[in-house]
Amino acid sequence: MAKERIILGIDPGTNIMGYGLIIQKGNKISLITLGILKLGNYDTHALKLKKIFERTLGLIEEYKPDEMALEAPFFGKNVQSMLKLGRAQGVAMAAGLYKDLPIFEYSPKKIKQAITGNGNASKEQVAAMLKNLVEFDTTPKYLDATDGLAAAVCHYFQGDNVKTGKSYSGWGSFLKDNPDRKV
């Protein structure tokens, strides 16, 4: 019997969160949807985080994914940006954990490598390759949407070898893997 699963990919961000959903039927993947959540109009970081949580929860409730793949924050020089990005990723993860979704985390370089074969590919190159892989016509205005989709497709390409990403099946496993984050 052919394997069927739905994968939600999230590109967390505090100005724009990108997402994409694919369905796997056997060895074929198809696009369900992709889009963005614009957060620039919200006044506070806390309100942005609330909107990320609500939108992620809404996507889970509407499409019933089997797994979630997230792009991990990359290490930059701006500590404040890293903190905000980590919080955005955390609330998206929290929505998945709340709905008992297995969560997998991939570095931006790993995602680009999986999609294009080049870990240093541009957002435009990733989007162009995804158009062929999951067959959609129009490249979205905001490439954050294709970045979210890329996380889902990267996870699909891992197949049964998902140990290459970090996986959390609940708060306990997340805290076990991140002991320095305990309160």
Give the tally of β-strands. 6
Structurally, the number of domains stands at 1
Order of helices and strands: EEEHEHEHHHEH
What is the mean pLDDT? 88
- CATH architecture designation: 2-Layer Sandwich
Q: What value does the Rg take, in angstroms?
A: 15 Å
Q: Which of globular, elongated, flat, extended, rod-shaped describes the shape?
A: globular
- CATH domain fold name: Nucleotidyltransferase, domain 5
Low-pLDDT stretches are none
The CATH first-level class comes to: Alpha Beta
Helix content: 40-55%
CATH superfamily: Ribonuclease H-like superfamily/Ribonuclease H
What is the multimeric organization of the chains shown?
A: single chain
What gap, in angstroms, lies between the N and C termini?
45 Å
Which structural category fits the helices and strands?
A: alpha/beta
* Count of alpha and pi helical runs: 6
**Main β sheet profile:** 6 strands, mixed
Widest sheet, order of strands: 3-2-1-4-5-6
Describe the structure.
The structure is a single chain. By secondary structure, the protein is α/β, with parallel strands linked by helices. It has a single domain (4-177), classed as Nucleotidyltransferase, domain 5 (2-Layer Sandwich), CATH 3.30.420. The protein has helices spanning 45-63, 79-98, 108-116, 123-133, 144-158, 171-177; strands spanning 4-11, 16-25, 28-38, 67-71, 103-106, 166-168. A 6-stranded mixed β-sheet has the order 3-2-1-4-5-6. α1 (45-63) runs parallel beside α2 (79-98), α3 crosses α5 (144-158) and α4 (123-133) packs across α5 (144-158). The N and C termini lie far apart (45 Å).
